[in-house]
Structures are given as C-alpha cells and as structure tokens.
Specification:
This protein has about 425 residues and is an alpha/beta fold. It is about 45% helix and about 15% strand. It has 18 helices and 14 strands. The structure holds uridine-5'-diphosphate-glucuronic acid (UGA).
Length: about 425
C-alpha cells in the first residue's frame, strides 16, 4: 500500500520503518531538512536498537523515502499518518498546532480519497477537530476519513513494539477506513480493537495514566517498606503472581521520566479539568513521582552527612536503559539538586552523554564506570543499564574513596553487596553494611 508518514520522531520513524519492512511503499516527511538529509544518508536522529539497520535496508530496497516537503508527498499516500509532536504548553495542555497545521496541509493538497490517521497522543475529541479542519479546507468532491490509531511503543524497544504490539487500536466511524487499516495491519498478528474515535483516543491516555499510577503505587509501597523494614522487591514479586496485577511495571525506583508519562499525565489532568472533573488519582500519581526524586536526593545527603564538597559518581543518565533520551530524566533533576548542595559530579552513560551535555553543566563526563568512580565519595545508580549489572564491583570498590553505593534502580542483590563489602542503600529495601 502507499503510505505517507508525516513527522519523523520516535513514533513516525518507527512506524515508517516497520510499514516499509512489511512491504509497503512509504514516504516519511519532516520539515526539519537537516534531519531528512541525515536520514537519507543513513544517520538516525535517535538511538533505537534495530532502527538504523531497518531504515537502511528499506531505503536500499526502495520501499522507504525521506522528504522535507510533505505537500508534494500528500498525493502519494492512500493512508496518511500524522505523527508530529504534541508537546506540552506552559500550563501542560497539549499543543495541537502542529497536528492542526498538518491537517490543513493535507486538506489543501489532496485530490483523491485518503485515510488520515492520527497516531500521536492527543486529547479526546482531537479527531473531531482534525475532521473539521479538513472539511473546512478541502476541495469539493474529495472524500476522506479520519482514524485514531494510537501508538503504544516504548523507547528502547520501539521496533519490536511496532512489529509485535500487544494490541492495535483502530478508532473510526467508517467501514471503508476500517477495512483499509485492517488490510494494512494484516501482516501483524496482534489483536485488533475496533472502536469509535473518541474511545481510541482515550485508550491511549488511559493506558499511560494507568502505567504511571502503577509505578507511583509501587513507589509508595517502597516508602512503607523503608519505614517498616520490609523489602519492596519481595512485595512486588508476591503481588505480581496475581494475574489481575502482574509483575511488570512494579519496579520501584527514582520515578518515571521520559517524554510520555510526565507530560501525558499532566495533560490528562487538564483534559479532565476541561470536562469539569478533578482527577485526584492522577494528581497523586504525579506528586508521588516528584517526591520520589526528592527522596533520593535526601537519601544521598543523609548517607554522606551532606554533599558539600563531595564527589559523586553517577552511572546512568537517560530516563531509562536502551535510549539516549534525556527528556524529563530523573537524573537531570537529581544531579542539579546535588550540585546545588555543593556536590561535584563525575558521570557515565553508555549512550546519553552527548544529549546530557546540552542540559547539564559542570559535570565531568567519563569514558566508563571505573573512570567515573575514581576518588568518588559514593556511587549513584540512576539508570538500570545492563552493563552496570555486570560491572567489576571489586575494581569499583578499590577506586571509590568510600565503599558506598546508592542505587536508585535496585539492580543489585542486597546480600551480595554486603558480602562484596559495600554500604548499600537502595529503594524500598534495607540498608546493608559491609560484612
Ligand atoms: C511509555 C509507554 O510504556 C508506552 O506504551 C507509550 O507508547 C509511550 O510511553 C508513549 O506514550 O509514547 P516510554 O516512555 O518509552 O513508554 O517508557 P517506559 O518503558 O514505559 O518507561 C517510562 C518510565 O517509567 C521510565 O522512566 C522508567 O524508568 C519508569 N518505570 C517503568 C519505572 O520506574 N518502573 C517500572 O516498573 C517501569
């Protein structure tokens, strides 16, 4: 099928690559010329496992093309995906101007029937707005349908999630559009949910709000574990066996970050407010998430009797492993707070250091965990990269000034750390001291 994807962020680029991989003729458009130039030369704007190879293969085999002028590309697409950014405004409402501008462009430049699909996370009723914009700007006698097909991919596993999603949601009010979408998704063997447009839009926001709440829930339990002497890992394991609960997304830590949960939960509170509903549950989810980062800073300060003049080694900067994304990364908040209290930071991250340099200052970026640990008063783990789980702890101990690890992601076994001779502080578990 002939497909146009407008916007080449995480969602657009993964969608374009996977749809080309499935055999479609895909054009991906973005107004950022530099990005398009890079993509045409095989340079990816983001780090995402498997993406580069898939893009290069499909470009080589002529199924995928990148252009910076979407107006010319509109005729190509029988299906047009709107995957442009929906950033937060200052008051956390969703900025829809990019979606609206693209809708206008599509309307003005199409001369045959199109299925116009919005994939970005948007407030409920955005489909109606898009429909109206297109109706108001379209030439006479040209048909179209609007579909909501929200994306559920996670950064770090974007390709895998797009190829094998848990479900495909198609929100539409036309059988013709539903048939076209089903045909396009035919090679992907995942359950398809057909619904109205508003419900599809809400499925996305509700899913992210639920997942964020699940994380804040376990973080609140972690706090009770710390106060009572219980172990949050065991509590999560015991809860997780209940099929109604499940073990995933019950990892206590330093709070959720990234460009989705923080902004989507705030946007959803606003959406509810605009309908006159005070979304207390989601407000509490956000508050607990903010507290979680503050609690970690307090833990570090308490463990070292203040951090003024102390050197801290930080392992992990990205908001989660397998991505270089620093947007709303808890590490940024924690580092800035500790610097404000006089700490010097030596940091290492396998891929996020370049992006971190744009938002952090006075940080000594190191070539590996060992260089970062040299002479530090404590080692902080802020992202659970696999390579940190395999680290040579004996070497780390010999490099640190104090054998102190404060782990915001619970990546080590507390007894193993005790046996290795560390004072080890983690989240929702007992503090242990060297044997
Ligand atoms: C999230 C959703 O998981 C996707 O389904 C959704 O499509 C995406 O947002 C989006 O709306 O675009 P993502 O932000 O890439 O995906 O990352 P997640 O893997 O969900 O992690 C989000 C944050 O939660 C990370 O900071 C992570 O460290 C934290 N987290 C996750 C925890 O603290 N504990 C957990 O148990 C799980």
């Amino acid at each position: 099928m002939k497909i146009l994807v407008i916007g080449t962020g995480y969602v657009g680029l993964s969608t374009a690559a996977v749809l080309a991989e499935l055999g479609n003729e895909v054009i991906a458009a973005d107004i950022d010329r530099k990005k398009i130039e890079g993509l045409n030369n095989g340079i990816m704007p983001i780090f995402e496992p498997g993406l580069k190879e898939m893009v290069q293969r499909n470009v080589r085999e002529n199924r995928l093309k990148f252009v910076s002028d979407n107006k010319k590309a509109i005729e190509h697409g029988d299906i047009i995906f709107i995957c442009v950014g929906t950033p937060p405004k200052d008051n956390w409402e969703t900025e829809l101007k990019y979606v609206e501008n693209v809708a206008k462009d599509i309307a003005k430049n199409m001369s045959s029937y199109k299925v116009i699909v919005h994939k970005s996370t948007v407030p409920v009723e955005t489909g109606d707005k898009v429909k109206k914009i297109i109706k108001d700007n379209i030439k006479e006698n040209v048909g179209f349908d609007v579909v909501s097909n929200p994306e559920f991919l996670r950064e770090g596993t974007a390709i895998e999630d797009t190829l094998h999603p848990d479900r495909i949601v198609i929100g539409a009010d036309s059988d013709k559009a539903i048939d076209i979408m089903k045909k396009m998704y035919y090679p992907i063997k995942s359950p398809i949910i057909i619904t109205d447009i508003k419900s599809a839009e809400l499925i996305k926001h509700a899913s992210n709000a639920f997942l964020a709440t699940k994380i804040s829930f376990i973080n609140s339990i972690a706090k009770i574990c710390e106060l009572s002497g219980a172990d949050v890992e065991k509590v999560a394991e015991g809860m997780g066996y209940d099929k109604r609960i499940g073990r995933t997304f019950l990892n206590a830590g330093i709070g959720y970050g990234g460009f989705c949960f923080p902004k989507d939960s705030q946007a959803f509170i606003k959406i509810a407010e605009n309908y006159g509903y005070d979304y207390k549950l989601l407000k509490a989810t956000n508050e607990i998430n903010e507290e979680q980062k503050k609690n970690f800073v307090e833990k570090v300060k308490k463990a070292l009797n203040g951090v003024d003049g102390k050197t801290l080694a930080v392992l992990g900067l990205s908001f989660k492993p397998d991505t270089d994304d620093m947007r709303f990364a808890p590490s940024a908040y924690i580092i800035v707070e500790l610097q404000g209290k006089g700490a010097k930071i030596r940091a290492y991250d396998p891929v996020a250091m370049e992006k971190a340099k744009n938002i952090l200052s006075n940080v000594c970026f190191c070539k590996d965990p060992y260089e970062a640990s040299k002479g530090a008063d404590a080692l902080l783990i802020l992202t659970e990269w696999n390579e940190f789980k395999e680290i040579d702890l004996k070497k780390i101990k010999s490099l640190l000034k104090n054998p102190l690890i404060i782990d915001g992601r619970n990546i080590y076994d507390i007894n193993a750390m005790k046996n290795e001779g560390f004072r080890y502080i983690s989240i929702g578990r007992k503090e242990v001291f060297p044997k």
